[in-house]
From TrEMBL, chain B:
<dbReference type="GO" id="GO:0005886">
    <property type="term" value="C:plasma membrane"/>
</dbReference>
<keyword id="KW-1003">Cell membrane</keyword>
<feature type="transmembrane region" description="Helical">
    <location>
        <begin position="222"/>
        <end position="245"/>
    </location>
</feature>
<dbReference type="Pfam" id="PF00528">
    <property type="entry name" value="BPD_transp_1"/>
</dbReference>
<keyword id="KW-0472">Membrane</keyword>
<feature type="transmembrane region" description="Helical">
    <location>
        <begin position="69"/>
        <end position="87"/>
    </location>
</feature>
<feature type="transmembrane region" description="Helical">
    <location>
        <begin position="127"/>
        <end position="147"/>
    </location>
</feature>
<keyword id="KW-0813">Transport</keyword>
<feature type="domain" description="ABC transmembrane type-1">
    <location>
        <begin position="61"/>
        <end position="242"/>
    </location>
</feature>
<dbReference type="InterPro" id="IPR000515">
    <property type="entry name" value="MetI-like"/>
</dbReference>
<dbReference type="GO" id="GO:0055085">
    <property type="term" value="P:transmembrane transport"/>
</dbReference>
<feature type="transmembrane region" description="Helical">
    <location>
        <begin position="99"/>
        <end position="121"/>
    </location>
</feature>
<protein>
    <submittedName>
        <fullName>ABC transporter permease</fullName>
    </submittedName>
</protein>
<dbReference type="InterPro" id="IPR035906">
    <property type="entry name" value="MetI-like_sf"/>
</dbReference>
<feature type="transmembrane region" description="Helical">
    <location>
        <begin position="159"/>
        <end position="181"/>
    </location>
</feature>
<keyword id="KW-1133">Transmembrane helix</keyword>
<keyword id="KW-0812">Transmembrane</keyword>
Length: 263, 271
């Protein structure tokens, strides 16, 4: 179901635009395992970047370092011109697991960041409810997570990351556990969110189609040691109807990426 | 969606059926063996003895119930706080755990005697015995609950800027409620046993336990059975009370939506 709404026309964010996040020459070793080797990447404000690679090539490790959870062996993270290396809490991070608190309702989970920092106010809850309703969770605000489907839980986790208010969001395989149909719906849903909210998104996936459909740029990673093999710009117009999945540009990109992944 | 309130009606019904079956079996045993009432009194005799002596038995029940309840609360609170301390501070856990296990390995009857020597024949040794029995399952289960909190959940809390106190209250503490009740339910059935042992070894004041001993010595078998019935009612009642409390306090386990009082409603009417 292609989104019939026409978005405001906006230029494709380019690397030359103002740099939001800069990953500088990261190296991460776990004992003798080199999880990341010489990883450098600049991400523009408002850009949607997909990190694509087989499992074990260091995608989650990259996010753990960028978020400040994990100390890199060397390298630094610069956000808005500020060195934020090893400072947790500067970017939003949606981990690979949905990590719902079972005893909190959907709304309680979405307002988690406010509760953890200063206590959620009525205003926080109203805003979260408004946001969640706008993106299809209106009927589930008072549900407990166990009563939701996998797709719904991912939406809640995404809303929680958005409500935390960070401009840069790291999403680690958010749709990895969903079936193909649900996944396509979620991808369209996410693109709509991204268009409306103008956040900068780094999105980890091992699904080539997903990366091409979503991204402005695709960072292809290869394992042992985890490093960037190539960075490709996706020259597909937005909004992207499902038909782009079969265009020549799409298939050409896919072929290019496959060569890196299965050389 | 079926809630546990609904599902709980099943077990309650089964309880009633189970009790009726026990009474029937008891009566059949009396008939089949032909044993005299002073060996096995029939249920009717036990109940009539209970009713005839109700003015006295009710006072004794009150006393035993009091010891059970206070000792239980004492054990539950101490166990819960101890588990929280052990869960938060590793050193405490390392030091205290062996002592806890030793404390439970000593036969409870053996502990009673020195307690009387220390505290005399007042209510204190009885409360300590009940608490001693109750606190252990609480500690063990709450510790398990604390350990079960997902590390990534704690990482997420850290990323969201959660202070340690708020993270504890929002992420860790609620994870202990289910396990806490598992411990409390085990404790609820044992507590009354603790009270009886306390009365047998450390009593100046009469309770159902002391009554049971006296009735037994006087060959008042129907009285023994009456006391037994009342003790059983205390045990089962405590369990059901705790179970009911659990269902109320863990709505996320039994319901798909929050109870009405916890539901969000817009603070201003939508435009
Ligand atoms: N905490 C850790 N300790 C040791 N090795 C780790 C740790 N985290 C990840 N690794 C290793 O680093 C490599 C990259 O892991 P990860 O970043 O999870 O990959 P991906 O997310 O791309 O599947 C793997 O070989 C993994 O085994
Ligand atoms: Mg991963």
């Amino acid at each position: 179901m292609p989104d019939p709404r026409q978005p405001p026309s906006e230029p494709l964010p380019m690397q030359s635009a103002s740099t939001k996040l800069s990953i500088g020459d990261l190296n991460v070793r776990f004992g003798s395992v080199v999880a990341l080797k010489d990883v450098s990447l600049d991400i523009a404000d408002g850009e949607f970047v997909c990190i694509l690679g087989a499992s074990g090539c260091g995608k989650s490790t990259l996010f753990n370092v960028v978020s400040g959870l994990l100390k890199a062996t060397s390298g630094k993270i610069v956000l808005d011109g500020q060195d934020v290396s090893n400072r947790p809490g500067q970017v939003g991070y949606m981990l690979q697991k949905d990590l719902m608190l079972p005893w909190r309702t959907v709304l309680g989970n979405i307002t988690l960041a406010a509760s953890l920092t200063r206590g959620a106010t009525a205003k926080d809850r109203d805003e979260a409810a408004e946001l969640a309703s706008r993106y299809g969770l209106g009927d589930f605000l008072n549900h407990y997570p166990h009563a939701l489907s996998g797709g719904m839980r991912q939406r809640v986790a995404m809303m929680r990351t958005i409500a935390a208010g960070r401009q840069v969001m790291l999403l680690d395989e958010p749709f990895g556990a969903l079936d193909a149909q649900t996944r396509l719906g979620m991808q369209q849903w996410l693109l709509q969110l991204w268009r409306d909210l103008k956040r900068t998104i780094l999105f980890v996936t091992h699904d080539v189609d997903e990366a091409i459909y979503l991204a402005d740029r695709i960072v292809v990673m290869t394992p042992r040691p985890g490093r960037i093999a190539d960075i490709l710009t996706v020259d597909l117009p937005r909004p992207r109807p499902l038909e782009v999945l079969t265009t020549d540009t799409f298939v050409g990109l896919k072929r290019q990426i496959m060569q890196h992944l299965y050389h | 969606m079926n809630t546990r309130f609904g599902a709980a009606a099943g077990p309650f019904l089964i309880w009633v059926v189970a009790m009726v079956l026990i009474l029937v079996a008891w009566q059949l045993l009396v008939w089949a063996t032909g044993l005299p009432p002073y060996v096995i009194p029939p249920p009717a005799l036990a109940f009539s003895t209970l009713l005839d002596n109700w003015p006295r038995l009710s006072v004794l029940t009150g006393q035993t119930l009091y010891e059970t309840a206070i000792g239980y609360l004492l054990g539950a609170v101490i166990g819960f706080l101890l588990a929280l301390a052990m869960g938060q501070i590793r050193v405490v856990q390392r030091l205290v755990m062996p002592a806890l296990i030793i404390s439970q390995a000593v036969p409870i009857v053996a502990i009673a005697a020195p307690l009387v020597i220390i505290f005399g024949f007042g209510i204190t040794p009885k409360l300590i015995i009940v608490a001693w029995i109750v606190f252990f399952p609480v500690v063990v289960n709450v510790l398990d609950g604390l350990a079960s909190v997902d590390r990534d959940m704690l990482n997420l809390a850290r990323l969201m800027g959660g202070g340690s106190l708020r993270t504890f209250a929002i992420v860790k503490l609620p994870a202990c409620i289910g396990p806490l009740f598992s411990g409390l339910k085990i404790g609820a059935t044992y507590a009354v046993t603790g009270a009886v042992i306390g009365e047998w070894t450390a009593s100046s004041k009469q309770g159902l336990g002391t009554y049971l001993l006296t009735a037994n010595a006087q060959m008042n078998t129907a009285g023994v059975y009456a006391a037994m019935l009342l003790l059983t009612v205390i045990g089962v009642g405590s369990f059901l009370l705790v179970f009911g409390l659990e269902v109320l306090m863990t709505p996320w386990r039994s319901r798909s939506t929050a109870p009405a009082w916890a539901q969000w409603k817009p603070s201003q009417p939508a435009s």
